[in-house]
Amino acid sequence: xxxxxxxxxxxxxxxxxxxxxxxxxxxxxxxxxxxxxxxxxxxxxxxxxxxxxxxxxxxxxxxxxxxxxxxxxxxxxxxxxxxxxxxxxxxxxxxxxxxxxxxxxxxxxxxxxxxxxxxxxxxxxxxxxxxxxxxxxxxxxxxxxxxxxxxxxxxxxxxxxxxxxxxxxxxxxxxxxxxxxxxxxxxxxxxxxxxxxxxxxxxxxxxxxxxxxxxxxxxxxxxxxxxxxxxxxxxxxxxxxxxxxxxxxxxxxxxxxxxxxxxxxxxxxxxxxxxxxxxxxxxxxxxxxxxxxxxxxxxxxxxxxxxxxxxxxxxxxxxxxxxxxxxxxxxxxxxxxxxxxxxxxxxxxxxxxxxxxxxxxxxxxxxxxxxxxxxxxxxxxxxxxxxxxxxxxxxxxxxxxxxxxxxxxxxxxxxxxxxxxxxxxxxxxxxxxxxxxxxxxxxxxxxxxxxxxxxxxxxxxxxxxx
Length: 466
What we know:
This protein is of the alpha/beta class. The chain has 16 helices and 16 strands.
């Protein structure tokens, strides 16, 4: 029998080809679509493909890893943003409303952002809501209750992170507890943190050698947030703008960690506002595209993880009224968010001593297409008129919701539009649905199987060598 021996060089080549890369990513992006379930993503894609006629508009759907993650909290199956944010930032479950602490508040939990910072990597936290909101706060704060906005903001100054960008602060003067407190801005100045409300100001601070920069939009929407993308005008800053600027600020040879949150996907889903959800997911995808552009320049040194903290709204593409039919294209006639439509209706009612339903219905038609491009039956018009009459009689033009305000008429307008478009909602809150996980870049193989949210930061730390 003859014996055959492969040359040692060939053997080594075969062996090396079977191994995964030992390269550790220096540049780590973690994108969190707050409240973004798979249905939210698919709805945005369906709308973009059929209405906007844009191919590949959802950048992360082409990533080589498409998995999913469970999201439950330590003490509740349906999680909240604080508990989920802590799981995504630290790798440990905690209780509802808790940030950066164990479920019984006895131990402090530290985030991967802190570990990157301690390993000499720069850190940036970006969000479309306020920087002291639950998800971004989970990467630097340790409080028993997420509503402690002022205390959360004071802990930001202990983080030593490099760049923050958001809609601003929810309670910078501590009006909720003690208005005599030192303001966040004065406290930040004393701790070497520099504030600006322009992107040009960010550039100037970088040029001057500032180590810690906090950017807030100059014209925030309610709740100290970026405007909903559906309400945005050309001069408004987008999440993609902030992501691009953050990359410019923290790009360096040692690497960085960047968390980017699309926070108002969740807000729109709480409002059961499908058209606004679509535009928030597309804006989030545009931000991811900025990271993809960076990845293309550093493919062997970069990883991008896109996920969500939980699903909001129990969104379905399909409902009882339409059976197997779907009419997502009808959502193109909605020109403003539910929040903005309420403002318009509220303004009309407050300015008219004798408001007329036909006048208000015309305004609603121009903003939503109802009774214009989208036909309404006499019964449906009667529902809206009854809502109008109840509001006028009660002189109650506003109802508080979780993150904004609405009214009975606005709520029924959106219910009608969503119903006709074939969109279903099971909840105005969160659900326990698994959320998607998309990954591209060095080390993406670590995310290919079924995940829990606590696995994500652990695997980021492992592949990054921190």
